[in-house]
Amino acid sequence: MASRRNVLKAGARSAASMVPLMLGLPACGQTVACEGPVEAASDRPLRAQAEDRGLLFGVAADRGALEGDLSYAQSIAAECSLLTPENDMKWQALRPKPDSFAFDDADWLVTFAEENGLRVHGHTLAWHYQLPDWFETTVDSANASSFLRDHIETVVGRYAGRVRSWDVVNEAIEPQDGRDDGLRRTPWLQRLGPDYIDLAYHAAAEADPDAVLVYNDYDIEYEGGYFEDRRRHLLDLLTGMVERGVPIHALGVQSHLRGHHQPEFDSFIAFLAEVADLGLDLMVTELDVRDHELAADVAERDCGVAATYQAYLDAVLDQPRLRSLAVWGLSDRYSWLSEFEPRDDGLPVRPLPLDREMKRKPAWNAISKALAG
Ligand code: XIL
Question: Which CATH number do you get for residue 166?
Fold first, then answer.
């Protein structure tokens, strides 16, 4: 394992010489402003282009993919300056049993990041999903706060100084759950009430006073009532936390975009300005573009995906408090959407900047162009 990581170091820059794809792209469907070929601003790695703007360029990945696929590991080492464990730091991964921790995969990832010059963004300490099987029967309202506190102290404490930022609470908003405050009825909320959120941030700050503590959520990017509702409740949540003196430093916007949506982000940008006015930084944490409702034709589909990346980034990159921009997987070979949002026609999804052969796609060019913009 250590030797695999060392090999990587030597080969880390090789993907930097890849030539950007310049396809002659036709116009796409009506909802996406897709105006032909997207040209990259530069063929330098995205980490360098992001650095020009003072941003980190991040990616989510797990040990399994990085250790098992040298071409993927090399591409990530070449293109990225920030690494988020896609699954390896979730409760399900770290907590095989109520009284023990399993750090092998997370340790491997953090070491991989350090040896290849990437920072680590931890993900995630309190979430309703990917909890271990034992959780439901073992954690109750009497012991939940000590489970949450112990977990955070142990995990954040272990990586203090090595994991520089954390998605402390993930996806706590769900207005459709019917509460007045818009909070999701998560296993944590059911046991502890809304206080679980503040508790998690205080525990993280105690375990690593220097860590950047982030609140992370999804579906706040587009126009329309569903998104508006989520933004309103999220702003209320963040405002309350800041007023109570809870140690929170940034909002993570997941940015799982939809290639078939009208790419209009005015309300979202106004919302981000309000969040920044609270004194919080901004991070794009899980960017990708769903293509399951776009044309089967690959060139047309790639064009729509690229146009979505560009429209979104053109809007978001202007935010003065934006600190990082991360994609949820770098290559289409490793997208969660293959499983979570597959296409009806069975064709492989193409939501990420590199194709399955680690070649740069129009989406890569669009990110480059937006970063230069
Ligand atoms: C996803 C992973 O990518 C999948 O591999 C896993 O099966 C489910 O979780 N929002 C989040 C991420 O905050 O943790 C999710 O990651 C994607 C949506």
Answer: 3.20.20.80
